[in-house]
């Protein structure tokens, strides 16, 4: 008993140390693989599904430790019982296996059905959780109440919950039926065992005293073997999720952004897109169709076009986040596919209308532009002044060290316009801490600003252009692009016009029509009808 207690304590202590270690390693592997894959993989629904399923692998790996320990203890007990039965009579051991086999089959079948259900319902589960989040999170609270979205979402949630409940009932009914069959077969095997023992007694092959001992041993062995089967079944079930975890790691490894490659020189001169084509797998038409343009360092380039024209895809290609399916992206004359992508990313800064609002301190929301670069409040001050965020920080209870996440106690939050200033400060910090040629991509940067702040923001963005830095501006506000050195007009994934503001207005093409239409909305003039005729050829060949 003392030995058993010591061994049990040792195994419990060892499992307690090993379980969190295994879960930490598995979770870290999962997250590391997820953050390293191509953006194209993250946008792939099939990969997203695998990503969701693999999430359960880390917890399953942890649970496998305790299941292994229990299975090991069960094996020790079973070996002892089997030794006794073998001494009593050799036929009792196979009969014991017959008693437990149906229960093992039933448990395995139930586990397999439950696993298949998880695979089939993982997206349903994600959707229902998303609806629950929308009903409770702060960002959706106003619309949920003003537009009476809450009852509609709640009704949808109830429908999804009822569907999930029906699936659970189906699994429960299937489990009950399977266990009924397994229990019946196990009972028949037990009856057969007693019949064999009765025959052994009547035939004189076993004494009554030994038979009594055999009955106790069979019952004890049946319980031990049953527990072992259940532990092995748990190992099997958890291993299915661990296999998904490993499958995800393997799939992610094949879709990881390549490491290594040629180094970029400090001075690249320009970034050129040469007949670039990109098509999403779920689309019949390419998002970009033989697009050519040049982004010289020191210039301000604007990209305009209607919704769905390919502007966002173009920016992802320019930044190296997407690799085109046709054509070339040249950084300083070198193909993107030959370069070290991590070094390319270091040359790119980005400010979008939906930039990430990190649940961190105000200082870290600026510093995260280059998170590995340490900075004090004094070092961040130029970026704060650049974005006109000094007054915003001054009113925060903890100043620049205030946590900007209202879901935490003692934290604060900002308005949309104030957050936009922090986005500008973050962009300034990243651009000013880079030493080599690079590109700043600005996508609808003033969507949350008032008109005066918008004019000021455009001026500040224009000031970020430097001999070693190009600014690529994507916006639907035509007043913000008139000062660009060159404007590209996209339509259905193609460059249909390019030129300066004056040249494009004189051409009276698509750009002129968009400009006059927007100007008319402010009461400045009436819309002018477009007249075909680009200001320049629709493509710019690489130098």
The CATH topology of the largest domain turns out to be ABC transporter transmembrane region fold
What order do the helices and strands follow? Answer: HHHHHHHHEEEHEEHEHHHHEHEEEHH
Instruction: Please tell me the overall pLDDT.
Output: 82
CATH architecture of the largest domain: Up-down Bundle
Give the uncertain stretches in residue-range form.
Answer: 525-543
The profile of the biggest β sheet is: 6 strands, mixed
CATH class membership of the largest domain: Mainly Alpha
Distance between the termini: 85 Å
What is the helix tally?
Answer: 17
Q: Approximately how much beta-strand content do the residues carry? A: 5-15%
Integer-rounded radius of gyration:
34 Å
Shape: elongated
Q: Percent helix among the residues?
A: 55-70%
Biggest sheet: strands side by side, in what order? 6-7-8-3-9-10
How many beta-strand runs?
10
SS class: alpha/beta
| CATH superfamily heading of the largest domain | ABC transporter type 1, transmembrane domain
Q: Please tell me the total number of domains.
A: 3
């Amino acid at each position: 008993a003392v030995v058993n207690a010591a061994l049990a304590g040792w195994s419990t202590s060892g499992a307690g140390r090993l379980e969190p270690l295994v879960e930490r390693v598995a979770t870290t592997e999962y997250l590391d693989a997820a953050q390293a894959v191509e953006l194209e993989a993250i946008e792939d629904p099939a990969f997203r599904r695998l990503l969701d399923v693999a999430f359960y692998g880390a917890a399953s790996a942890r649970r496998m430790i305790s299941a292994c320990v229990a299975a090991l203890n069960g094996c020790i007990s079973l070996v002892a019982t089997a030794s006794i039965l073998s001494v009593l009579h050799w036929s009792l051991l196979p009969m014991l296996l017959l008693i437990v086999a149906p229960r093992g089959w039933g448990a395995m079948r139930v586990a397999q059905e439950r696993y298949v259900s998880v695979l089939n319902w993982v997206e349903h589960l994600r959707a229902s959780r998303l609806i629950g989040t929308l009903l409770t999170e702060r960002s959706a609270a106003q619309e949920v109440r003003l537009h009476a979205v809450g009852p509609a979402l709640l009704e949808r949630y109830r429908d999804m919950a009822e569907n999930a409940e029906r699936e659970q009932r189906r699994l429960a009914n299937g489990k009950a039926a399977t266990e009924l069959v397994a229990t019946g077969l196990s009972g028949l095997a037990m009856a057969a065992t007693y019949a064999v023992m009765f025959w052994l007694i009547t035939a004189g092959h076993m004494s009554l005293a030994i038979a009594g001992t055999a009955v106790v041993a069979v019952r004890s062995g049946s319980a031990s073997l049953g527990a072992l089967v259940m532990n092995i079944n748990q190992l099997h079930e958890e291993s299915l999720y661990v296999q998904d975890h490993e499958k995800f790691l393997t799939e992610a490894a094949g879709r990881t952004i390549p490491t290594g490659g040629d180094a970029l020189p400090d001075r690249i001169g320009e970034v050129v897109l040469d007949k670039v084509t990109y098509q999403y797998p779920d689309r019949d038409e390419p998002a970009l169709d033989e697009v050519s343009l040049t982004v010289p360092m020191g210039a301000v380039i604007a990209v305009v076009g209607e919704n769905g024209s390919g502007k966002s895809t173009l920016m992802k290609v320019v930044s190296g986040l997407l690799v085109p399916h046709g054509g070339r992206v040249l950084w300083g004359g070198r193909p993107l596919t030959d370069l070290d992508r991590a070094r390319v990313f270091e040359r790119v800064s980005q400010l979008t209308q939906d930039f990430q609002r990190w649940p961190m301190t105000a200082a870290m929301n600026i510093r995260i532009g280059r998170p590995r670069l340490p900075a004090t409040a004094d070092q961040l001050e130029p970026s704060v002044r650049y974005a006109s965020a000094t007054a915003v920080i001054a009113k925060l209870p903890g100043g620049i060290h205030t946590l900007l996440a209202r879901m935490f106690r003692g934290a604060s939050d900002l308005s949309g316009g104030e957050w936009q200033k922090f986005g500008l400060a973050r962009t300034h910090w990243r651009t000013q801490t880079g030493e080599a040629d690079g590109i700043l991509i600005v996508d609808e940067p003033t969507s949350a600003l008032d008109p005066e702040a918008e004019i000021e923001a455009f001026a500040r963005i224009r000031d970020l252009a430097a001999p070693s830095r190009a600014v690529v501006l994507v916006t639907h506000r035509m007043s913000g692009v008139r000062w660009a050195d060159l404007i590209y007009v996209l339509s259905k994934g193609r460059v249909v016009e390019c030129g300066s503001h004056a040249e494009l207005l004189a051409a009276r093409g698509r750009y002129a029509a968009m400009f006059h239409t927007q100007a008319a909305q402010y009461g400045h003039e009436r819309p002018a009808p477009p007249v075909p005729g680009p200001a320049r050829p629709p493509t710019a060949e690489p130098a």
